[in-house]
Structure formats: C-alpha cells, structure tokens
Amino acid sequence: MIISIASGKGGTGKTTVAVNLALALEGTMPIHFLDCDVEEPNAHLFLYPEIKHSETVNLPVPVVDESKCDGCGKCAEVCAFNAILAFKSQTIVLPELCHGCGGCTLLCPRGAITESPKEIGEVETGRAGKIKFSHGRLKIGSALAPPLVNAVRKTAHGRGPDSGLVIVDAPPGTSCPVVASIKGSNYCVLVTEPTPFGLNDLMLAVDLVRELDIPCGVVINRAGLGDDTVSSYCSSEGIPILLEIPYDRKYAECYARGGRLVEDFPELRDALCGLWRKIAESSGADRDGTARRREMAEI
Question: N or C, which end of the chain is more exposed by having fewer CB within 10 Å?
Fold first, then answer.
C-alpha cells in the first residue's frame, strides 16, 4: 500500500506527520519511507538513516551533429518544451529546458541527433532502524525535479501482501513534482493548518488529488490556532478529518531540536496509529482478511 503525505503549501507539518507516522508503525510491518521533496529533502534530519547506496540520476539530452543536420526543423516541431531552436544555419539545444522525452532523436529524418546523459541529481538509499529509507537530492542548477522523483519512487519496487507500507513525503504545493510524487498512491493525506492560507492551499490540493482520482483525508496541524473554516470546508466537501494535532509549544520545541514527537509524547503515537487505522479502513487495506486485521489490532 502506498500512502502519500502532501500539502498545498510548505510549513504545515507535512514531513512531521510523515516521519512520525513511519516511526509509530515501525516494527509492525515492513515500511519504506520515500522523501520525494528532492529540492529540499529533510526527513533524514529526523529519521537519521544510515545511507548504504548512492546512485547518480541522468537525463538524456539531445546532441546535434551539424555535419548531418540540414535545418529541416522537425526536431523543434516535436519539442513541446522549446528546448530546440532550429535555423537553416544552425540547430541550438537548450539543455535546461529539455525533458528527455527522446522525440527529437526518433523523428530526425537525417539521424543527426543523438543523446548524451546530463546529471540532474542523486538517489540515496539506506535504513533508519527497521525502516527502509530513500530520498533524492536535486543537483544545484537543475530545473527538472520529476525525473528524480520518479527515480526515488522506483526504489520502492515491492509488490504483494508482504511488501508492506510505502510512505511518500511529497513536496509542498500542487506543481509537477507533487504530481510525480503522489500518482499511483492508494491514499493521500493532506496536511493543513486552520488559517486562511491553509484553507486556500488545501482547496488546491484537494482539486489535484481528485483529478488524479486518489482518495484523501485531512490532518489539521496546530488545531486551535486559527478558526473552523477548514473543518467547515471538509464537512461540506465530504472529506474526512483524520486527525487534529493541537497547537502546543512543547510540540514545536521538540520539532525545533530535531526530536521525534512519537518518542516524547505517547499521546501522539496513539493518535498516529489511529490515523493509520482510519486510512486502512477507508482504503480497504484490511480487506485481505484476518491477518491484516490482526496486524492492525496489534498497532
């Protein structure tokens, strides 16, 4: 089962929820944590993983052989991202805009275009206790995060009833990297805060997951800080509120020093285990019978 943790904006506590959910469930089932916020990964600051493997991720970009190119412009016509500018005298490649689709290479009638790998980042994998861990680091200056996000997602290749739970910590917002992170999820948890900004960005996030046809529920972080407009919106839209985490200085202090909330505050461990049970029940994760129900009961 794949659970993605997302938010319409940064700073809502998305990574806090994702990390502490993984820690609350550690040891009860196989867990693979994916930090897909490749532009600013920070889950490792709380999980303390031992990195065992690192792999460079490349994007194929076109290289034009001017001796073969006749300036027909077919390559520029097929490029949806304007990464190739074709002139009679010269064809110019803009690698920063290239998405690596390979269309120009396939359609060049003269065979004048080949591909060369361009490094865009790296994927690191390891373990944090009993939790399998993967994250990506986008290379400074690289503009395209989705290919690196896809590479992180590919590290979670297990299938079947024994493959356990995959927790995806998505980037904030509703842009392309978020789509790449949460697509194919069985359930998406949207973390928000009870403020006007939180409501506005939650609505954008809800539109996104509905477009992707992913069931979702909401976690309200810092509950009691603002007003009840988020709760009213969720009620009107039929979106379940899975958990409310109270606004409390002691939680903020724990987070600020890199602490683990579920270790310092048992009530949050119980609450996050309850969050998992609600997700499992609503998504049908326990439909496989007695074994899965027993597993949930143990939690």
Answer: C
Mean pLDDT, the chain, integer: 91
**Residue 139, φ and ψ in degrees, nearest 5:** -65, 140
Among all chains, which residue has been given the structure tokens 């928000």? 192
As a whole number of angstroms, the distance between CA 55 and CA 64 comes to 28
pLDDT of residue 184: 94
Distances (CA, A) of 192 to 40, 61, 225: 19, 38, 12
pLDDT tens string 228-256: 999 999 999 999 999 999 999 999 999 88
Q: pTM (2 decimals)?
A: 0.88
Q: Give all domains of the chain, ordered by start, each with its CATH number.
A: 2-57+121-298 (3.40.50.300), 59-119 (3.30.70.20)
* DSSP 8-class letter at 26: B
Provide the pLDDT for residue 158: 59
Exposed e or buried b per residue across 146-163, where buried means at least 16 C-beta atoms within 10 angstroms of its C-beta:
bbbbbbbbebbeeeeeee
